[in-house]
Amino acid sequence: MPNPMGSRQGDEGAAGSGTQGPDVLGDAVSPEAARRALHRVADMVADRLESPDRYPVLPRLEPGAVRSSLSPAPPAVGETLDTILDDYARLVEPGSTQWNHPGFMAYFAISASAPGILAETLAATLNVNAMLWRTGPAATEMEELVCDWLRQMLQLPPEFRGHINDTASIGSFLALAAARHRADPTIRELGLAARADLQPMTVYAGAEAHSSIDKAVVALGLGLVNLRRVPTDDTFRMDVAALAATIQADRGRGERPVAVVATAGTTSTTSVDPLRATAEVCAREGLWLHVDAAYAGSAAICPEYRALLDGLELADSVVLNPHKWLFTPLDCSVLLVRDPGALRAAFSVVPEYLRTTSGEATNLMDYGIQLGRRFRALKLWMVIRAFGVEGLRARIRTHCELARDFAARVRAEPGFEVCAPVPFSTVCFRATPAVEAEEQDRVNERILERVNASGEVFLSHTRLRGRHVLRLAIGNLWTGPEHVARAWELVREVAGEARASPP
Ligand SMILES: Cc1ncc(COP(=O)(O)O)c(C=O)c1O
Questions:
Q1: Which of 113, 125, 224, 414 is deepest in the core (most CB within 10 A)?
Q2: Which residue minimizes the CA distance to atom 13 of ligand 1?
Q3: Separation of CA 215 and ligand 1 centre (Å)
Q4: How far is the centre of ligand 1, averaged over its atoms, from the C-alpha of 415 (Å)?
């Protein structure tokens, strides 16, 4: 395949190339050059917000095409910001998967909205490292404030305190670390290795829980054999009776149950585990309840969707990703914890050079692994202010309505089925031609390939009850009824060909 990114630049400007090229180091440090370039960037940003579908949602590229179009060695001398922006516009933008495209309906769709983009620029300009309150008073206090805004929006009790991480994977890891510490504080000092006095510690999660929970268990040294995947019911929700029975069986074998992870919005189907019943089991058994609400936590700012998360207020910790469905640019994941002291007890280590006398002030370095902390709160603060809670709710409701419309079209079409309930904005569906099951799977794989090759729409897939299933997830700010209608039209168009022939 020809390289659509154009030919690789030569090594002329690269290290070791002597004095070739203009020595324009000034552009890297000149406020005037920055001003000119930022005006150009402002136009580039506004152009992209105006036409987020300017490029195909999936770039038509072979692996290696982007890299081979870029200089393999670093430039020896500085280049102008204009030259660099030209290359960005020519090579980087079209070489990117367009997550802001309204046809992006794969995985969980996201959006970088204007207030979030502005905040990222300003945060980079301020360049605060809020490891301690005194190294970032505004960043620290705003992080506490916006997390409390979210707490209120989610109707969680006032004792919950939050902080922001890059991802839900880290939030879940921190929550399980706090749970492990609460179960056995000696591990912090003595570790897990060669401890004849320790029973195996077990963690419980539904069969549909995200793989980040497996990774957390790995990183905490608990061992994947001690992660119990609890079976789910007909609607992909954790079976709480099976959870309770598994905990009992583990105790009977001398194991040490530590925590349960319930998911509010599982990755495949967006099912919500029965939170209240799970919380009752946790209370009875003395276990930490962590709720992974990475996706559906955003929907829970609407009272009618919060009702689907009944019992959320009983959790010990909740993680949700404003970078998923609250129109905040990557990365922004909020971990809310009922007892923030549990995180401090697990993680706080204060070397002499970071010792302060700031009294009651929060030092966010005490709440996890990382020391350095960028000013992520600024974008969430600007997004919530610019949309308002009602504005955010309105968009989420629209997305859920669009998903219900799509599901209704699928249900009405002979030869298709909806494969799971649609509580929020994600639809699992498949074609069901009259062929054997494996061939049905191949037909659905071909439908997906053909739809995605269109460049108009990007869908993803999952496996439910052993079958290949298509997933349409609405969450992009610019996705409207016309895009969802087009997605369905494309699926129907290619379904006939996919039934008839291999790709
Ligand atoms: C339910 C759930 N939890 C956790 C994650 C991981 O999110 P992150 O990329 O923020 O770690 C995902 C990702 O889609 C998810 O769907």
A1: 113
A2: 267
A3: 12
A4: 32
Give CA–CA dist 323/170, Å, rounded. 14
| Total domain count, the chain | 3
For 52, the domain range is 25-92
CA distance linking residue 327 with residue 387, whole number of Å: 9
Tell me which of 350, 374, 398 is where a domain ends: 374
CATH code of the domain containing 429: 3.90.1150.10
- Higher-confidence position of 360 and 272: 272
Pair 296, 258: CB distance under 8 Å: no
Q: Is the CB of 499 under 6 A from ligand 1?
A: no
* Torsion (CA) 104, 106, 109, 114 in degrees, nearest 10: -30
Name the residue of 169, 211, 426 to mutate for ligand 1: max ligand atoms within 8 A of Cβ: 169
Cβ neighbours, 10 Å, residue 80: 16
Residues taking part in catalysis = 353
CA dist., res. 376 & res. 143, Å (int): 8
The continuous run of DSSP H or E covering 125 comes out as helix 114-126
Query: In the predicted model, is pLDDT for residue 77 greater than 80?
Result: yes
Residues 161 and 54 in one domain: no
The CATH number of residue 60's host domain is: 1.20.1340.10
User: Collapsing DSSP states into helix, strand and coil, what is residue 290?
Assistant: strand
Work out which ligand 1 atom sits closest to the CA atom of 321.
10
Mutation test residue for ligand 1: of 107, 210, 271, the one with most atoms within 8 Å of CB: 210
Beta carbon of 460 within 6 Å of any ligand 1 atom: no
Prior bond of 331 cis (ω within 30°): yes
In tens, the pLDDT along 439-461 reads 999 999 999 999 999 999 999 99
CATH of the domain at 340: 3.40.640.10
Q: Which ligand 1 atom sits closest to the C-alpha of 265?
A: 1
Cβ 295 under 6 angstroms from ligand 1: yes
User: Which residue shows structure tokens 């019992």?
Assistant: 311
Over residues 362-375, the pLDDT tens digits come to: 999 999 999 999 99
What's the 106 CA to ligand 1 centre distance in angstroms?
Answer: 13
Q: Quickly state the pLDDT bin for 20 (edges 50, 70, 90).
A: very low
Query: Which atom of ligand 1 lies at the shortest distance from residue 266's CA?
Result: 1
271 CB within 6 A, ligand 1: no
498 pLDDT band (50/70/90 cuts)? confident
pLDDT, the chain, mean:
94
- pTM score of the predicted model: 0.94
Give the Cα-Cα-Cα angle 221, 210, 203 (nearest 5 degrees). 40
The predicted structure's pLDDT at residue 503: 47
Same domain, 390 and 369: no
